[in-house]
Amino acid sequence: MKKEKDDVYGDHISHQFNDDLSALKSDFLKMGGMVEEQLNNAVIALIDSDGNLADEVRAKDKVVDRLEIELDEEATRIIARRQPAARDLRLVISVIKMVADLERVGDEAKKIAKFALSLAAEGQAPRGYVEVRHIANLVSVMLNDALDAFARLDSEQALRIMKEDKRVDEEYQAATRTLVTFMMEDARNISRCMSVMWVLRALERVGDHACNLAEHVIFMVKGEDVRHTPVEEAEKIVGR
Amino acid sequence: MTDQLSQAELVRQSLKRRYRKEWRFRTYGILAIGVAILALVILFTDIISKGYTGFLKTTVTLEVPLDPELMYLDDPTDPEQIRMADFVAPLQQALLNELPTAEKGDRRELGRLMNSYAANQLRDQLQANPDWLGTTRTMTFLANTDVEVYVKHKDDEAYSIKLSDQQQRWVDELVDRGVVESSFNDVFFSSGDSRDPSNAGIAGAIVGSLLTMLVTLCLSFPIGVAAAIYLEEFAPQNRWTDFIEVNINNLAAVPSIIFGLLGLAVFINLFGMPRSVPMVGGLVLTLMTLPTIIISSRASIKSVPPSIREAAEGIGASKMQVVLHHVLPLALPGMLTGSIIGMAQALGETAPLLLIGMVAFIVDVPGGFFESATVMPVQIFLWAGSPELAFIERASAAIMVLLAFLISMNALAIWLRKRLERRW
Amino acid sequence: MNTMNPNIVNETATTETRAVSAADTDISHADNGYGETVGKPFTDNPKFALRDVEVYYGDTQAIKGISLDIRKNQVISFIGPSGCGKSTFLRCLNRMNDSIDSCRVKGRLELDGQDIYDRKRDVVELRARVGMVFQKPNPFPKSIYDNVAYGPRIHGLANRKSELDDIVENSLKKAGLWAEVKDRLDSPGTGLSGGQQQRLCIARAIAVSPEVVLMDEPCSALDPIATARIEELISELSESYTIIIVTHSMQQAARVSHRTAYFHLGHLIEVNETNKVFTSPQHELTESYITGRFG
C-alpha cells in the first residue's frame, strides 16, 4: 500500500461518501485533541493546585460528552445511508468503539480534576505527585500516539502503544507501593494518599483506553481483531 | 435574473416554432391519408358502379309450344332427328304469341332477341324429357346480349345499342308484360367463360384459382417454414448461409414475369408438363411466394424472445424440443400472416401465368390439377381486353369477386394473428 | 449503436489501465498482472471442481484461467464490475455457452468428478442436474401448471398425471408460490407479477430436481420486496441445493451467500467466506470494488 494515507478513504465514486468519511475522521480527531487537552489540564490543575483550571476541565467534559453523541450519530448515518464495506466499514465501526474509549478518558480527566479540587482545598505539601507526573506523561504520550496512529493508519505505532501499556502497569504498581509506604509512615496521610491513588488509578485506566484505541487502529488497518490476543500474536498480524 | 427571463422568452419562442412544425407535420400526414382514402373511394365507386350490373342477368320467360310439326321432330330420342330438328322455330313462335303487334314476317327479327344458346337449351331439355313433345311449356331463357345491354343500359351514352327501333319497341313491350326481366346472375357464378357475355361466368376462374392456390399453399408453406426454421435455428453462420440469405432476399425482388419464364422453361419444356394447368401455375406461384414466406417466417422466428429459448434450454430441452415446443408456437401467427399475405399476392398475380398458357380461352370448369384452367386475374385481363362492351361489366364484377377474396384472406390473416398470438 | 461503441471501448480501457496500475504498485506478479487468486478458492469434496478455465469468444479471451471449487449445498455468489466475465463463467457450468458458435471453453470443469465438457456427455442430462434461473423472469407463455410441468415432462420424470401434479405442487411450494397460485394453475404464467414470475421460474428450475441451481442476477428486474422474498427463498433452497448466484448487488451477495468470489476482467481475484470478503478483503481490487471505488 504505497498510496497516500489520507487518500485511502477518499477515492470513492461518490464524493458525498468521501466527504462523510473524512468528516467522521476529522471530527474524531477533534474530539481526541480535546480529550488530550482535558487530560493534560487536569494533571496540571492537580500538580499546580489550580482550582480554576480544575473547574474548567469539569465544565468542559459536557462538550466531550456532546461530541461523543454527535460522532455516534454521524457513524450511524453513514452505515444507514452508505452501507460501508471492508475498509470503510472497519473505519466506521472502529470510530464508534473508539469514541466510547475517548469519552471514558474524558471522564477520567474529569475525575482527576475533581481530586485536584479537593486536594487543592486541603493545601498541604503534595506527596506522590512525582509519580503522578511521571505516569501522566507516559499515558499522555500514549494517547497522543494512538490518535496519531489513527490519523496516519500506522499499525506499527499502534503495536508499540500496546507494548507501552505494560510499562504503565509496572509504573502504576511501583507508584502504588510508594504511596502505601507513605500511608504506613503517617496515618494522617491516608486520606490524601488515597486521593492520589485514585488519580493514579484514573491515569492507569487512560493508559488502558489508549491501548484499546491502538487495538482498534490495528483492526482498521489490518482487518484482524487483536483484542484479547497476546502481543506476540498481534505482532505477527501487524508484521504481515 | 434578466438572463433567466430572456432564456424563458427564448424557450417560448422556440416553442411556437416547434408547435408550428408539429402542426405542419401532422397536416402532411393527414393529407397523405386523405389522398389514399380518396383514391380508394374513387376506385371502389368506379368498379362497383360499373360492375354491379354484372351480377344481374336478363331472362326471357316464354310459353314455348313444343309442336312436333314446327320442329320437324317426331321422336326426341332419335339423335338423327334431333340433329335435323329446328329448335328456333318454337322460340320464335312463342315470342310471336307474346307480341300481338308483331307479324309472322318478323320471325327472324324476333328470333334475334333470344340468346344464341336458347335453342340448345330447348334441345337439351326436350331430350331429357321426351314426353314434353306436343305440349306447351313455360321456360326461362337468357336474353340475347344486345337485349341485355339494352335493358340495363338504354339510358347510358357509353353503350351503343345494337337493336333496331322495332326490336327496342318489342323489348319495351316484353319488359312491360314481365316476359323480360332482370334477376340475380347465377350464371356468372356457375359457368365458365364464353364468347357470349350473357353466358360468361367466373366459376371456371374461381375453381382454377382455388386449385392453383391449393398447390401453392401445400408446397410453399411447408417448404418456406422448413427453410426458415433451418436457416434461423440450425444452419451455422458462414459464407454459405449468408449467400443463401442474400439470394432469398434478391428472389423476393425479382419481377414475377421472370418466374413465369422459369416455369415455362423448367416445368413445361424440360419436365414436359401440360400447359395452362393449375399444377404448373401453382408451382410457378410457389416459386414466387417462397421468398416472401421464408423472409416473413424468419422474421417471426427472430422475434421470439431469446429468453424463452434460454429458459427451455436451461431446463434441458433439446434443440428440437426448443423449436417445436416454444419457438414454433410463438412464431406461428407471424408465419401464417406472412404466408397468407404471400398467397394473396399470388392470388392476384397475372404475369407469370400468362407465360405458362393459363391465358387460354377455357369454357369448362376445371375438374383437377391437370386440366386446363384459368385464374381470376387472368380472366379479368381477358374480359377487360375484350371488344364486347358487355364484358366490361363482367370484368368489373370479377374484380369485385377477386377483391372480396383478397379482403377475406387478409381478414383471415388478422383473425389468425389475434387468435393465435400469445403474449410473453 | 455505432456511436455507442467507442464509449464502451473507452470505458473498459480506462478501467483496465487503472486496475493494472493499481496492481503494479501493490502486488508483485509474474504472469498476468493479477497473480494467483487470493483467499480460499479450494475446498475438500467439492461439487464443482473447476481448473484453469478459459473462455474465448472468437479471438477475445473472456475468462483468463480461473480455478475454483464450489461446495455442496452452499450459496456462492459471483460479484464484479460489468464485463468481468462472471456471467460467462456461470454459463459455462451448464454449457449454456454452447449455443454461441464463436464460444470456446478450455480447462477442466468437473461436476462430482465428471468432466462437464466431455464429448460423450449429454448436455440435456447436465442441464437436468444443473438448472438455471435468468436475469429477466422468463416464464413460457403457457399456464402456470405447464410452466412447472414442462421440465418433468420432457425428461419423463412422471409416469402418471397424479405424479406430475405432485411434482408441480412440491416445486411451487418450495418456491413459496403455492399459496398464491394454487387456485389458478391454469391461468397464464405471464400474468403474474415480476416477483411471482421469477419464483415461478425458480419452481420450474427445481421441478426437475437439479443438484445445482445457477442464478444469473435473479433479482435485478425486481422491486425490493420481491427481491427480499427471492433472497429468503435462496437461503431456504441452499439446504438442499448448491446455488451459484451472479449479482450486481454487493449487499445481496453479502446477505445470501456463504462464499463470495470477486471477478475482474476475466480473472478470479479473490474467493473467501462472505464475512471475510465484506469486512476485510485481502486484495486491493476487491476492496476497491466492494467499497464503491470503481465498478
What's this entry about, in short?
Chain A is mostly helical. Helices cover 83% and strands 0% of the residues of chain A.
Structure description:
The complex is a heterotrimer of chains A (240), B (424) and C (295). In chain A, 83% of the residues lie in helices and 0% in strands. Chain A has a single domain, classed as Phosphate transport system protein phou homolog 2, domain 2 (Methane Monooxygenase Hydroxylase, Chain G, domain 1, Up-down Bundle), CATH 1.20.58. Chain A is built from seven helices and no strands. Chain B is 67% helix and 5% strand. A three-stranded antiparallel β-sheet of chain B has the order 2-1-3. The B-C interface holds B 236-237, 305, 307-308, 310-318, 321, 325-326, 330, 422-424 and C 94, 96, 99, 101, 123-128, 131-134, 136, 138-141, 150-151, 154-155, 188, 190, 201, 204-205, 208.
Write out key terms for the chains shown.
heterotrimer, B: 424 residues, mainly alpha, MetI-like fold, 2 domains, 3-stranded antiparallel beta sheet, 18 helices, 3 strands, elongated, C: 295 residues, alpha/beta, Rossmann fold, 7-stranded mixed beta sheet, 4-stranded antiparallel beta sheet, 11 helices, globular, disordered N terminus
Architecture blueprint of SSEs:
The complex is a heterotrimer of chains A (240), B (424) and C (295).
Chain A: H1 15-47, H2 51-82, H3 86-122, H4 129-152, H5 155-185, H6 190-222, H7 231-239
Helix pairs in contact in A: 1-2, 1-3, 1-4, 2-3, 3-6, 4-5, 4-6, 5-6, 5-7
Chain B: H1 2-51, E1 56-65, H2 68-71, H3 79-84, H4 88-98, H5 107-111, H6 118-128, E2 136-142, H7 145-153, H8 165-176, E3 180-184, H9 186-190, H10 203-234, H11 239-253, H12 256-270, H13 278-302, H14 306-315, H15 319-347, H16 351-355, H17 376-384, H18 390-420
Antiparallel strand pairs in B: 1-2, 1-3
Chain C: H1 4-26, E1 38-39, E2 48-57, E3 60-70, E4 75-79, H2 86-92, E5 103-111, E6 114-115, H3 123-129, E7 130-133, H4 144-154, H5 161-174, H6 178-181, H7 194-206, E8 212-216, H8 224-237, E9 242-246, H9 250-256, E10 259-264, E11 267-273, H10 274-279, H11 284-290
Parallel strand pairs in C: 1-11, 4-9, 4-10, 7-8, 8-9
Antiparallel strand pairs in C: 2-3, 2-5, 5-6, 10-11
